[in-house]
Amino acid sequence: MTSTSNKASTIGWLLLLVAAIAFPFVSDNDYYLTVMATAYVFAIATLGLNLITGYTGQFNLAHSGFMAVGAYTVGILTVDHAVPFWIAFVLSGCIAALLGFFVGILSLRLKGHFFSIFTLCVGYIMYLIIEKWDDLTHGTVGIMGIPAPTPIAGVEFETPRAQYFLVLFFLVLAVFVMRRIAHSLLGRTFMAIRNGDDLAEALGINLMRNKVLAFMLSVFYAGLAGGLYAGFVRFLGPGIASVEHTFDMTMYMLIGGLGTLFGPLLGAIAVPWLTQSLQFLQDYRFIVFGPLLIALVIFLPNGVVGTWLGWRARSASRLAEKQAKDGVSVAGRREEKSHA
């Protein structure tokens, strides 16, 4: 059963990849490519938030702040110091992870709502630093003229289609790495912490070390997503550090399925397209979108993917129970025949 499930999952991921590759050839509209690429960038960041929140059980409200750290790392280094884009891009994730180490050491001593409130304050401090430190971040004016990613093997990333495939490549890489983490001993360690600190300690898990590691991996994803965002949009303002973006990513996780791999991707891609499709309603579109979101949370509390996985698990359990009963019944009849 497990091998069949894994095979079906692999086929499903491959079909999604084929659809993503085919999308630019089906749609010649550059605006749609831009919307989709932006959704991919936030999907990468949402994968990181899902690691610390969905898998480890710590709700980090400073996640958009770390995404801003990655974005501004690329913006400051490339525009003010003429550092090549790819070096700045690598540093975007590393600096976010380094900052995440110090924030994690302080914040992860707290639990539950106290941790979330602390990170909310940290995120707001990040926003204020970006907005007020004119000499470093250019303040409210923002950073303009961020160069596009430099060519690789003669491939340039100036056009929307080229940028789309670049972002798609990093999304595929991010999903692959996250899948390996989720199915590894490390991922099971994170899930044990989510299920309860006392249980995890009883299993011999070092809580602080693993929580900090999960936090660093999470914000590393956010930093890289921010670096991609900077090279894609090529303009940065303090708004990227707003907690509203963290709430958006949280909504993506809740709709798709918290603690699942495909759920954050589904939410991060479906929600922006839903809002785009309701643009004709202008300011009234949230009157439609709001009730839809509420209905999803009420009737699918585990998200779309989480609900489907739960249904599949229950169906597999009922099938196994039925097969076991049939096996016992057949064995009983054979025993009766042998006695006869």
Describe what you observe in this structure.
The chain is mainly α and 340 residues long. The chain folds into 2 domains: 24-301, ABC transporter involved in vitamin B12 uptake, BtuC (Orthogonal Bundle), CATH 1.10.3470; 311-340. The protein has helices at 2-26, 30-55, 63-80, 85-107, 113-132, 134-137, 160-182, 185-195, 197-202, 207-233, 243-256, 262-277, 285-299, 303-339, and strands at 143-144, 235-236. The chain has a two-stranded antiparallel ribbon. Helix 2 runs antiparallel to helix 10.
Describe the protein's topology.
Layout: H1 2-26, H2 30-55, H3 63-80, H4 85-107, H5 113-132, H6 134-137, E1 143-144, H7 160-182, H8 185-195, H9 197-202, H10 207-233, E2 235-236, H11 243-256, H12 262-277, H13 285-299, H14 303-339
Antiparallel strand pairs: 1-2
Jot down its keywords.
single chain; 340 residues; mainly alpha; ABC transporter involved in vitamin B12 uptake, BtuC; 1% strand; globular
